[in-house]
Amino acid sequence: MQLNQNTAEKLLEELGIKNMPLISIRPVYTNVSADWFSIYKRLCRQFMTSLTDSVETLAFMNLTQDEFMNLIMGKSLPANMSFRFRIPLSWGGKLDLDNMFLCRTFPHSYTLDRFIIQQSGNETIWLPNPAKKIYLPTQSETSSPGGNGTEDRLTETIASQIVSNRDF
Asked: Is the overall model pTM greater than 0.70, yes or no?
């Protein structure tokens, strides 16, 4: 069944992801170069180091100091985190930082895969396109006074200090 923007948004919401911006594409089936993976690995490291401009968002991920430092220094990706292409390479997407975003593997990346697979064979495909480099569900981006808001603010302050002290 071909989706329009409204039905695509409703389907994504039914899958548990609300307020995710979508883009529509007409897949242009493309052969991916044989060396794509080595380029991808370098790109992932560049993407991680580019996250120094996203410290406020990273603070809401409750990373340990080591996970945070390893991430922004391009050393390692924290557990349960995934890089995603906004437009898959096989559909004409580019190996480019602007074509990537970061999200939790479970449940978000798995859910986004289900959403895309359900559109298989359609002439127009609706793809997730978060506004920021990191996708966090709306409810995760705010802290309640009774929750771990203090820890979130502390994490954000520490992250900001680490970045500024290391000249990022």
From this structure: yes
